[in-house]
Protein backbone atom coordinates (compact mmCIF):
# COMPACT_ATOMS: atom_id res chain seq x y z
CA UNK A 1 0.00 0.00 0.00
CA UNK A 2 1.03 3.63 -0.47
CA UNK A 3 2.23 6.02 2.20
CA UNK A 4 0.05 7.42 4.95
CA UNK A 5 -1.78 10.63 4.09
CA UNK A 6 -0.56 12.19 7.34
CA UNK A 7 2.15 10.75 9.57
CA UNK A 8 3.23 12.74 12.57
CA UNK A 9 5.56 11.59 15.36
CA UNK A 10 6.75 13.24 18.59
CA UNK A 11 5.77 16.69 17.37
CA UNK A 12 6.30 19.61 19.72
CA UNK A 13 5.37 23.12 18.66
CA UNK A 14 5.61 26.47 20.47
CA UNK A 15 5.02 29.95 19.07
CA UNK A 16 7.75 32.61 19.40
CA UNK A 17 11.48 32.47 18.81
CA UNK A 18 14.55 32.47 21.03
CA UNK A 19 13.89 34.04 24.42
CA UNK A 20 10.35 34.90 23.34
CA UNK A 21 9.56 31.19 22.89
CA UNK A 22 6.26 30.41 24.59
CA UNK A 23 5.19 27.19 26.27
CA UNK A 24 4.36 24.46 23.74
CA UNK A 25 0.85 24.63 22.29
CA UNK A 26 1.14 21.10 20.89
CA UNK A 27 2.91 17.94 22.02
CA UNK A 28 1.66 15.00 19.98
CA UNK A 29 3.33 11.58 20.25
CA UNK A 30 1.66 10.11 17.18
CA UNK A 31 -1.01 10.86 14.59
CA UNK A 32 -1.38 8.64 11.54
CA UNK A 33 -4.15 9.12 8.97
CA UNK A 34 -4.50 6.56 6.19
CA UNK A 35 -5.53 7.50 2.64
CA UNK A 36 -9.30 7.64 2.31
CA UNK A 37 -10.02 8.14 6.02
CA UNK A 38 -12.51 10.69 7.31
CA UNK A 39 -10.69 11.98 10.35
CA UNK A 40 -12.19 14.26 13.00
CA UNK A 41 -9.97 16.52 15.09
CA UNK A 42 -11.69 18.31 17.95
CA UNK A 43 -11.00 20.21 21.14
CA UNK A 44 -11.93 23.47 22.82
CA UNK A 45 -11.21 26.86 21.31
CA UNK A 46 -7.54 27.80 21.67
CA UNK A 47 -6.28 24.24 22.16
CA UNK A 48 -4.18 24.25 18.98
CA UNK A 49 -6.36 22.78 16.21
CA UNK A 50 -5.58 25.46 13.62
CA UNK A 51 -1.92 25.35 14.69
CA UNK A 52 -1.83 21.61 13.99
CA UNK A 53 -3.32 22.20 10.53
CA UNK A 54 -0.60 24.82 9.92
CA UNK A 55 2.04 22.20 10.79
CA UNK A 56 0.43 19.60 8.50
CA UNK A 57 0.27 22.19 5.71
CA UNK A 58 3.97 22.97 6.25
CA UNK A 59 3.22 26.63 6.93
CA UNK A 60 4.56 26.20 10.48
CA UNK A 61 7.55 24.03 11.38
CA UNK A 62 7.77 22.08 14.66
CA UNK A 63 10.65 22.48 17.12
CA UNK A 64 10.82 18.70 17.46
CA UNK A 65 9.42 15.63 15.72
CA UNK A 66 8.58 14.64 12.18
CA UNK A 67 5.65 15.31 9.86
CA UNK A 68 5.20 13.54 6.54
CA UNK A 69 2.42 14.04 3.99
CA UNK A 70 1.98 11.13 1.57
CA UNK A 71 5.44 9.88 2.51
CA UNK A 72 7.20 13.22 2.03
CA UNK A 73 8.92 14.49 5.18
CA UNK A 74 8.14 18.22 5.37
CA UNK A 75 11.32 18.99 7.33
CA UNK A 76 13.45 17.65 4.47
CA UNK A 77 11.84 19.91 1.84
CA UNK A 78 12.84 23.44 0.85
CA UNK A 79 10.19 26.13 1.42
CA UNK A 80 9.32 26.13 -2.29
CA UNK A 81 9.07 22.31 -2.38
CA UNK A 82 6.73 22.51 0.64
CA UNK A 83 4.62 25.08 -1.22
CA UNK A 84 4.45 22.79 -4.25
CA UNK A 85 3.49 19.76 -2.15
CA UNK A 86 0.79 21.81 -0.40
CA UNK A 87 -0.59 23.05 -3.71
CA UNK A 88 -0.57 19.60 -5.27
CA UNK A 89 -1.86 17.52 -2.38
CA UNK A 90 -3.85 19.77 -0.04
CA UNK A 91 -7.23 21.38 -0.49
CA UNK A 92 -7.92 23.77 2.38
CA UNK A 93 -11.34 24.94 3.56
CA UNK A 94 -10.71 27.87 5.89
CA UNK A 95 -12.80 28.86 8.88
CA UNK A 96 -13.92 32.06 7.10
CA UNK A 97 -13.63 30.39 3.63
CA UNK A 98 -11.08 33.01 2.42
CA UNK A 99 -12.67 33.26 -1.02
CA UNK A 100 -10.93 35.87 -3.21
CA UNK A 101 -13.35 38.82 -3.18
CA UNK A 102 -12.39 40.29 -6.57
CA UNK A 103 -12.80 36.97 -8.41
CA UNK A 104 -16.05 35.40 -9.58
CA UNK A 105 -17.38 32.08 -8.27
CA UNK A 106 -16.00 30.39 -11.41
CA UNK A 107 -12.55 31.97 -10.97
CA UNK A 108 -12.40 31.09 -7.27
CA UNK A 109 -13.16 27.43 -7.98
CA UNK A 110 -10.67 27.27 -10.89
CA UNK A 111 -7.85 28.95 -8.95
CA UNK A 112 -6.01 25.84 -7.60
CA UNK A 113 -5.84 24.39 -11.12
CA UNK A 114 -4.63 27.69 -12.57
CA UNK A 115 -1.89 27.98 -9.93
CA UNK A 116 -0.75 24.38 -9.37
CA UNK A 117 0.35 22.27 -12.34
CA UNK A 118 -0.24 19.00 -10.44
CA UNK A 119 -3.89 19.87 -9.80
CA UNK A 120 -4.35 20.81 -13.47
CA UNK A 121 -2.62 17.65 -14.74
CA UNK A 122 -4.96 15.41 -12.76
CA UNK A 123 -7.87 16.68 -14.85
CA UNK A 124 -6.39 14.76 -17.80
CA UNK A 125 -8.21 15.69 -20.97
CA UNK A 126 -10.99 17.53 -19.09
CA UNK A 127 -10.67 21.32 -19.35
CA UNK A 128 -10.63 23.46 -16.18
CA UNK A 129 -13.87 25.07 -17.37
CA UNK A 130 -15.59 21.71 -17.76
CA UNK A 131 -14.39 20.54 -14.34
CA UNK A 132 -15.52 23.78 -12.66
CA UNK A 133 -18.96 23.30 -14.23
CA UNK A 134 -19.13 19.64 -13.19
CA UNK A 135 -18.36 20.53 -9.56
CA UNK A 136 -20.70 23.52 -9.63
CA UNK A 137 -23.52 21.28 -10.87
CA UNK A 138 -22.87 18.76 -8.07
CA UNK A 139 -22.98 21.57 -5.50
CA UNK A 140 -25.96 23.49 -6.91
CA UNK A 141 -23.76 26.45 -7.89
CA UNK A 142 -24.28 26.52 -11.67
CA UNK A 143 -26.53 29.63 -11.71
CA UNK A 144 -23.99 31.52 -9.59
CA UNK A 145 -20.80 30.83 -11.57
CA UNK A 146 -20.37 34.33 -12.99
CA UNK A 147 -21.42 36.15 -9.86
CA UNK A 148 -19.02 37.87 -7.49
CA UNK A 149 -18.37 35.81 -4.33
CA UNK A 150 -19.16 38.91 -2.26
CA UNK A 151 -22.84 38.47 -3.23
CA UNK A 152 -23.15 34.94 -1.84
CA UNK A 153 -24.87 33.67 1.30
CA UNK A 154 -22.78 31.82 3.88
CA UNK A 155 -24.07 28.46 2.66
CA UNK A 156 -23.18 29.33 -0.93
CA UNK A 157 -19.70 30.47 0.10
CA UNK A 158 -19.19 27.14 1.86
CA UNK A 159 -20.11 25.23 -1.27
CA UNK A 160 -17.69 27.33 -3.34
CA UNK A 161 -15.02 26.53 -0.73
CA UNK A 162 -15.74 22.78 -1.11
CA UNK A 163 -15.42 23.02 -4.90
CA UNK A 164 -12.18 25.00 -4.67
CA UNK A 165 -10.69 22.52 -2.18
CA UNK A 166 -11.59 19.39 -4.14
CA UNK A 167 -10.86 20.51 -7.73
CA UNK A 168 -7.89 18.65 -9.22
CA UNK A 169 -8.26 15.86 -6.63
CA UNK A 170 -5.71 16.76 -3.94
CA UNK A 171 -4.85 13.77 -1.73
CA UNK A 172 -5.89 15.54 1.46
CA UNK A 173 -8.76 17.92 2.17
CA UNK A 174 -8.40 19.93 5.35
CA UNK A 175 -11.43 21.74 6.75
CA UNK A 176 -11.03 24.15 9.68
CA UNK A 177 -14.37 24.64 11.50
CA UNK A 178 -16.35 25.14 8.30
CA UNK A 179 -19.70 24.46 9.98
CA UNK A 180 -19.43 26.81 12.99
CA UNK A 181 -21.82 29.34 11.46
CA UNK A 182 -24.50 26.80 10.46
CA UNK A 183 -27.61 25.45 12.18
CA UNK A 184 -27.96 21.65 12.59
CA UNK A 185 -29.86 20.97 9.33
CA UNK A 186 -27.47 22.97 7.22
CA UNK A 187 -24.51 21.40 8.99
CA UNK A 188 -25.79 17.96 7.95
CA UNK A 189 -26.26 19.10 4.34
CA UNK A 190 -22.79 20.59 4.27
CA UNK A 191 -21.19 17.42 5.69
CA UNK A 192 -23.06 15.21 3.21
CA UNK A 193 -21.82 17.33 0.28
CA UNK A 194 -18.29 17.49 1.63
CA UNK A 195 -18.18 13.69 2.12
CA UNK A 196 -19.56 13.06 -1.35
CA UNK A 197 -17.09 15.39 -3.06
CA UNK A 198 -14.13 14.01 -1.06
CA UNK A 199 -15.15 10.48 -1.97
CA UNK A 200 -15.51 11.35 -5.66
CA UNK A 201 -12.07 12.99 -5.63
CA UNK A 202 -10.58 10.04 -3.72
CA UNK A 203 -9.36 12.51 -1.08
CA UNK A 204 -8.64 11.89 2.58
CA UNK A 205 -10.54 14.29 4.85
CA UNK A 206 -9.18 15.95 7.99
CA UNK A 207 -12.04 17.88 9.55
CA UNK A 208 -11.59 20.19 12.52
CA UNK A 209 -14.27 21.40 14.91
CA UNK A 210 -14.82 22.34 18.54
CA UNK A 211 -18.24 20.63 18.19
CA UNK A 212 -17.80 17.09 19.46
CA UNK A 213 -21.37 16.16 18.42
CA UNK A 214 -20.15 15.73 14.82
CA UNK A 215 -17.73 12.93 15.76
CA UNK A 216 -20.14 10.11 14.93
CA UNK A 217 -20.02 11.02 11.24
CA UNK A 218 -16.30 10.26 10.99
CA UNK A 219 -14.22 7.09 10.95
CA UNK A 220 -11.74 8.21 13.62
CA UNK A 221 -11.10 11.12 15.96
CA UNK A 222 -8.36 12.81 17.92
CA UNK A 223 -9.09 15.02 20.90
CA UNK A 224 -6.71 17.91 21.48
CA UNK A 225 -4.85 18.92 23.57
CA UNK A 226 -2.54 15.91 23.61
CA UNK A 227 -0.01 17.54 25.91
CA UNK A 228 2.30 15.57 28.23
CA UNK A 229 2.28 12.40 26.19
CA UNK A 230 -1.37 11.68 26.97
CA UNK A 231 -2.31 10.31 23.55
CA UNK A 232 -6.00 9.97 22.96
CA UNK A 233 -6.61 8.61 19.51
CA UNK A 234 -9.76 6.50 19.67
CA UNK A 235 -10.34 3.98 16.96
CA UNK A 236 -13.46 2.35 15.63
CA UNK A 237 -16.10 4.93 16.45
CA UNK A 238 -19.67 3.83 15.76
N1 LIG B 1 0.53 33.40 15.52
C1 LIG B 1 0.44 33.11 16.84
N2 LIG B 1 1.36 33.59 17.71
C2 LIG B 1 1.30 33.28 19.02
N3 LIG B 1 0.35 32.51 19.58
C3 LIG B 1 -0.59 32.00 18.76
C4 LIG B 1 -0.60 32.27 17.35
N4 LIG B 1 -1.67 31.63 16.79
C5 LIG B 1 -2.27 30.99 17.79
N5 LIG B 1 -1.65 31.21 18.98
C6 LIG B 1 -2.01 30.66 20.29
O1 LIG B 1 -1.89 29.24 20.21
C7 LIG B 1 -2.96 28.61 20.88
C8 LIG B 1 -3.70 27.69 19.91
O2 LIG B 1 -4.35 28.47 18.93
P1 LIG B 1 -5.17 27.81 17.72
O3 LIG B 1 -4.31 26.78 17.08
O4 LIG B 1 -5.67 28.91 16.88
O5 LIG B 1 -6.35 27.09 18.51
P2 LIG B 1 -7.77 26.51 17.97
O6 LIG B 1 -7.71 26.47 16.49
O7 LIG B 1 -7.89 25.16 18.61
O8 LIG B 1 -8.82 27.45 18.49
C9 LIG B 1 -3.83 29.72 21.47
O9 LIG B 1 -3.44 29.91 22.80
C10 LIG B 1 -3.47 30.91 20.62
O10 LIG B 1 -3.62 32.09 21.35
MG1 LIG C 1 -8.94 27.35 15.06
Structure keywords:
238 residues; alpha/beta; Rossmann fold; 6-stranded mixed sheet; 7 helices; globular; binds adenosine-5'-diphosphate; binds magnesium ion
Task: Tell me the domain tally.
Answer: 1
**Total E-strand runs:** 10
CATH class: Alpha Beta
CATH evolutionary superfamily: P-loop containing nucleotide triphosphate hydrolases
Largest sheet: 6 strands, mixed
Helix and strand composition category: alpha/beta
CATH architecture: 3-Layer(aba) Sandwich
What is the topology, as strand order, of the major beta sheet? Answer: 6-7-8-3-9-10
Number of helices: 7
**Binned strand content:** 15-25%
Give the overall silhouette: globular
Q: Gap between N and C termini, in Å?
A: 25 Å
Please, what is the average pLDDT?
A: 91
Quickly describe the structure.
With 238 residues, the chain is an alpha/beta fold. The chain has helices at 49-56, 79-89, 105-115, 117-121, 128-138, 154-166, 184-201, and strands at 6-13, 26-33, 38-42, 64-69, 72-73, 90-93, 172-176, 204-209, 220-223, 233-234.
